[in-house]
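Predict structure. Chain length: 592.
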Amino acid sequence: MCKLTINGKQVNVSDNSTILEAAKSVGIKIPTLCYLEGLTPMGACRVCMVEVEGRATLVAACTTPVQEEMVIHTNSRKARESRKVVVELLLSEHEGDCQLCERSDDCELRQLALELGIREVRYQGEKPPAMLDTSSVALIRDSAKCIKCRRCVQVCSEVQRVGALSAQFRGYHTTIAPAFNDALESITCVQCGQCAAVCPVGAIIETSHIEFVLKALDNPQKHVVVQTAPAIRAALGECFGLPPGTLVTGKMVSALRELGFDAVFDTNFAADLTIMEEGTELLTRLRNHFILGQETRLPQFTSCSPGWINYAEHYFPEILDKISTCKSPQQMFGAMAKTYYAQKANVDPADMVVVSVMPCTAKKFEAVRPEMRSSGYQDVDYVLTTRELGDLIKMGGVDFIALPDGEMDSPLGLSTGAADIFANTGGVMEAALRTVHAVTTGRSLASEDLHIEALAGLEGVKTASVTLSGTVDAWSFLEGKEVKVAVAHGLGNAASVVEYIRDHPAEFQFIEVMTCPGGCIGGGGQPRFTTDAVRLARIGAIYQEDEGKPLRQSHDNPAIQQIYAEFLEKPLSHKSHELLHTTYAKKEKVTP
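Prediction complete.
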């Protein structure tokens, strides 16, 4: 431990702490613009400068380690003036257009300028050349707003191991962009949106579908249905000032009805459907492995996360045959809406518009993939992020907080608790094991609360094992077999798992991968700013939603049982293969 003084307060912290961490431990806020929790401090923005007695110059709090008996002043005149000059210089180059910028309400630069008392920009001069990049399906990059904090660079390289963005050129001409200042569409970008989630300004945002959705809602000839992903209900409230982790499922449903959607459904229904298909696929692969001795298609990787699929197509094409052929719940829902639901509602699918509300920008990319037209039409027409839905509700003049709780419509609105936990890292795996264990043994998991504790939490890679008794005759070959599973969230962790599997191909039988840290609750389209504390609050809310459901295993969902009886026949049937499954192919990786 190390003893020091900050603003007159005695502080005891670990001797490997930074000044920023030490100050935070006693409730002293030091402003930052480049710092990201858990990642290597860069000291790029120079906003966190503080005064240390005995030092000739100010130091960056985020990169300076503490020392015994250090005396620090975070709010001295010298520190304040330094911060103010830095922010004014950033503002002098920043084409913010705060009156119209979509980040004006939650722009960190604007908020910091207000806190520092900046009411005019003293420095005027040339601004760097600007580039508006709209080439990507999911993201828009506006270099005129970029303050070169390098958060996007760091999250793309350190967390996701994609490296799509970096500092280009030098000095005054430095810009944060793909190599050679190319467009996003021309390089290997998985469109996860983590760059947009950490950007402090409006330099990277999602491609908005709000106007397309409004146009559809205004057209009386269109039957517009909406599906909401499980992660939305634990985060949407943040758009209206509610604390992270506040469950707003019922208010969300009521708000969507107020906006004029013809039917409000739940992606959770399709998550239950995914478990039936993916779980049966896993059991089929296990049978082929244990009985026929086939070695080629294990471990099975999950396929729910489109950023992960994009990443694997570029970086690990050798495992594409091991990825589940199941479409994501979003795309399964779209296919079911424009076939099964269209028939039951007597609606021409050509006149149906399917809107998704997702925590993920990559879902915008997934919706327009050519593989996602199994209904004969584009299965999902438009995708709104959680942030976009918050904006749409405000545009509609809806008093969200005052809304009563509504309920999802039938038949695609009924779901189990297993579907809720798809939002969390480890949730897809837990949901699948609940059903796989019940199908093969005839009983539920031993844990009374159905949770598999080893799969919970924010550790980057988690492992667990489940021993199956195979007491159901069809699965007797599994008697005493141990199924080992792994869970990874964040593409950097996923890459580590794949690289491990190359040397240990028989270690695991089932692997869940989520693109974003924490899973979908930390998606690139969620309300900003997502720290680990926010992730844990949202995760807790999702488990609360699961535990409050009367049905908590996907195979117990009567609406799922009905859709197989009336339409799909059984998991992995010919019809389900046509509508709910797909395959992926190698893409050429563009090296930044």
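Summary: DSSP finds 18 helices and 18 strands in the chain.
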